[in-house]
Design a protein that fits this description.
Helices cover 76% and strands 0% of the residues. By secondary structure, it is mainly alpha-helical. It contains 17 helices and no strands. It has one domain: Growth Hormone, Chain: A (Up-down Bundle), CATH 1.20.1250.
Length: 506
Amino acid sequence: MSELPQEGAPSGKTAVQGQAQPMLPLCRKVCYAIGGSPYQMTGSALGFFLQIFLLDVAQLKPFHASLILFLGQAWDAVTDPAIGFLVSRSPRRKFGKLIPWIAFSTPFGVTFYCMLWFVPFDTISVWQKCLWYLVMYCCFQACKSCYHVPYSSLTMFLGGSQRDRDSATAYRMGVEVFSTLVGSGIQGQIVGSYHASMTQICTALNRTLQNRTSAGLTDTLENTRRAYTIASVALSSLYVLSCLVLVFGVKEQPGPLSPLEKSKLPFFRSLRVILAHRSYTHLLCAFLLASLAFQVTQGIFAFYCTHAGGMAGRFQHLVLIMLVTASLSIPVWQCVLVRFGKKTTVLVGLSIVIPALIVITQVTHNFPVFVVMVIMAGCSLAVLYLLPWSMLPDAVDDFRLKNPNCLNLEAFFYSFYVFFNKFAGGLALGISTMSLHFAGYKAGDCTHNPSVILTLKILMAPVPIILLLASMVTFYFYPINEERRRQMKVEMEAFEQGRGENANSG
């Protein structure tokens, strides 16, 4: 295999044939991995706590909360592909093509994230409060897209071989799972005790046949709102720190099939080309279904533990256990996928969570059983983090080999992947909040009717299990297996060697 000349090398020379491609330095992998922390820290905080915040802390009705989430994701449907297209069309500047997007979006993202967790005065109308949260949510999601779309596209521009790229993805997912742990851990430890206090006060009110408000409940509510503000500031500080590590620790490396220049295709032509690629659309559908399954469970988990599972005040500990398990499982699943292949690993890994969800809905008020089940769920969650993102570069390589004239569309590919992940999160929250609305859930009530409890159980197990089974079927028919990956590697090496010979003859 011939090695391509490095950036800055004379264009008329090629590397000596037979030399291996230079390995990707460990420090670059680590800095790249740390750069994914903001997306997961804020995403886990939103996934686990935004729904309970809007309903129990901001005192919105389920209809208003679901409206905010639905419109926010509708906005995302525009921003993610649009930003992916703008990134693909942006020129390569002094500091790169992708890094400037990340650096300049961070200050705005941090500001809107803090404002999202702030509760406006109770004297304003419900619709004014809804408008506040909708604007903050949409602005933060737009800034998040400006950060994460170019960041995830960096996977294709780190340098090194296909194995190095998979290794960098494993580092990234390990850090991102740990970041999910940090985000939900900080948020949960700061606000969890206040939610437990509200539950205790509700229990005391039930004994005195009261159900709505008291002075103690009002004071606890104010303290809970203050705790959410403190948690948002803490996570925003880590957001900025991670961005600095990425900006100063990673340099973009263009490749033979990805020169990192401006894309010449118009928007709708680019859209048609990538969505016509069978491998990519298979992967998108499977990823959407699996992500939706996990995020339905994630969004309802705090509610279920508080109101149906008998774990009020302890759900934050269960979340930490699950995420610690997921973080420790990433290296194990990386070894498994190297040994048995990506398709086999994703099918086995996703199936582990199914019996755990069934047991959680059948056994309540039993902390040890919940611990064992969330450990199983954490192992499966690690697969969701690692495998789909590890399979995406293969689909992009397959596209570039079959469409050698369609260059510099990597950001477009990754933008739709990011969009589907966030769309699944918003759709999951929308489904759960609307289900609670039709079940008769009322914010501020200390007791709930049986239909609310039944709805929580259905959202906790049957719905995600059906989605997981559909996802596993789609993954089964995904066309890129290990044989195709080896074939693509040979084709890319032949392409690089042909470029080198053309350069020598020129």
